[in-house]
Design a protein that fits this description.
The chain is α/β, with parallel strands linked by helices and 370 residues long. The chain folds into two domains: 196 residues, Rossmann fold; 144 residues, no CATH class. The strands form six sheets. The protein has a six-stranded parallel sheet, with helices on both faces. A hairpin with a 2-residue loop joins strand 3 and strand 4.
Length: 370
């Protein structure tokens, strides 16, 4: 079950609580296909030329990366006028893996969305990805290796021609829905790791990077006093992160990329999400529905007295005292935590300093361009 606490509108509450479980994805097979390199037209919002093309040169529906536009799953890719212009590398057969993203969150929910079929079928051949970033992250190579995937990345100036291409449907569409099939690759990877030494109560720290949530440290301190083990994704290896999520029964964390690793959960009973702004990505409720084995609690206690900077730079300020009260109410804390007001004041001071640091840098950059 999903629950929402805090200051949210009735509309937002309904959006979070809506059932977002999608149906079982299917697979199609196409002969003599071309997979061209993507050409990015805009990154905000994302627009690009890409997709997969049949032997007549038409883009195959469902291969253009779907995202939420106006509440519906909509393909973002614009078809190339002519894909025959690209030099090609040939493969007799392959699987289309979709778009590769270097960003951890987008990797977790989009790059992996077609891999359910690879796991289900036991396929060991090449899996072709169109690269949407400037490089291939080490965590991605580690993930593919653990899953036993022969990842092939389409070269920047060359297409791939495949004699027989298997195209699995995506098992998740960002901010729309997720299928139970989405979790299969993650469960397969998690099974291969030994049980972690971390406890069954896990706090996933966001820390002081981009988009920091001030007030978090006060909540973290309260949870640690009651036995929660803290996981810092910026310091832990991918294997350590996977094992920690797979082992935990209770998980709490600020909403962000690292919490997509919930897909590795094997034993979770409760998940507490700390919102850093009023708009919550509905990808998380969709993942909750796809896993379906735990209760999730969305704690929306957003202060943010100053307007957050664009592109999720933040900073954000959460009401730590309200979060702790709700964590006690929902069973993560055994009792209401006595929040030290000195911690609250210190975090709010840090929040103001960080906001002004980003603002000063923005103004200096604007002055330099003038």
């Amino acid at each position: 079950m999903k629950y929402v606490f805090g200051d949210v509108s009735n509309i937002q509450r309904e959006v979070i609580l809506k059932n977002r479980l999608g149906g079982e994805p299917t697979v199609s097979i196409h002969d003599n296909c071309i997979v061209p390199p993507p050409s990015i037209l805009s990154r905000g919002p994302l627009s690009f030329r890409g997709g997969v093309y049949d032997e007549s040169g038409r883009m195959i529906p469902g291969t253009g990366l779907q995202r939420n536009i106006g509440g519906k799953a909509t393909e973002l890719a614009i078809a190339y006028d002519d894909v025959s212009k690209f030099p090609v590398e040939h493969f007799a057969e392959a699987v289309y893996g979709g778009c590769y993203f270097e960003h951890f969150g987008h990797f977790m929910v989009e790059t992996t969305a077609r891999l359910w079929w690879v796991v289900e079928s036991g396929y060991k051949g090449p899996v072709i990805f169109q690269v949407m970033s400037t490089g291939i992250a080490s965590f991605a190579r580690t993930f593919f290796s653990m899953l036993g995937i022969d990842a092939v990345f389409v070269p920047r100036n060359m297409a791939v021609r495949v004699g027989r291409l298997t195209i699995p449907d995506a098992s998740l569409v960002v901010q729309v829905w997720a299928s139970k099939a989405f979790t299969r690759p993650f469960r397969e990877v998690a099974k291969k790791l030994p049980s972690t030494g971390r406890g069954e109560r896990l706090y996933v720290v966001r820390g002081r990077g981009v988009g920091s949530a001030f007030g978090e440290a006060t909540v973290q301190k309260a949870l640690e006093r009651e036995g929660f083990q803290t996981l810092d994704p910026t310091e832990a290896s991918l294997q350590e992160q996977i094992a920690a999520f797979a082992n935990a029964r209770q998980i709490v964390g600020v909403i962000g990329s690292a919490m997509h690793s919930l897909a590795y959960c094997q034993r979770a009973e409760q998940v507490g999400y700390l919102a850093r702004n009023a708009t919550i990505s509905t990808t998380f409720p969709a993942i909750d529905d796809a896993i379906g084995s735990y209760d999730s609690h969305y704690l929306v206690n957003v202060l943010n007295p100053l307007p957050p900077h664009p592109n999720l730079q933040g900073p954000f300020l959460i009401d730590a005292e309200a979060c702790c009260d709700q964590l006690a109410e929902t069973g993560y804390l055994r009792r209401r935590s006595q929040v030290d007001l000195r911690d609250v004041i210190a975090e709010r001071d840090l929040y103001m300093r960080e906001w002004w640091r980003i603002e000063s840098a923005r103004r200096a950059a604007d002055a330099g361009r003038a």
